[in-house]
Every structure is written in structure tokens, then in C-alpha cells.
Amino acid sequence: MMATQEQIDRARLHIEQLRDHHAGEVIALVRLIEGGALKGPAGDRLAADLLTWDRAFKDFFTRALALLDGLQGASAR
Question: pTM of the full predicted structure?
Fold first, then answer.
């Protein structure tokens, strides 16, 4: 059974909402750390780790949206 266009659209919206929420939360944490909440090498490492984590999640969301695009094309046939 193929996904309906409505299901694909709902999934896309949910993924986009998760992506946007994630981006806002991670950037807020990085700004907090870079603003001096955690100083020294530990703060620097945590900020770098958060940015790496952010890139990985952005890639994950991009791949999930690409998968939906593939489903959309398959369901149109």
C-alpha cells in the first residue's frame, strides 16, 4: 500500500517542524555556551560538539525529506 499524498504532506510538515525546532534549540545552546555560560576548553568542546551534532541532524532531516520526495514520485505513478 502506497502512502497517500495527504500522508506524505503531513509527514513532510512534521519533519520540517522538527527540523526547525531542533535548529532553534541547538543554536540557543551554542549561543549560551559561547556567551560564557561554560568557559574554557570544556565550553569550547561542547560548542564544537553541538555544532557537529547540528550538522548531522540537518543531514538526517534532509535525507528524510528526500525520502518523502521519492515516495511522492512513486505514489504519483
Answer: 0.75
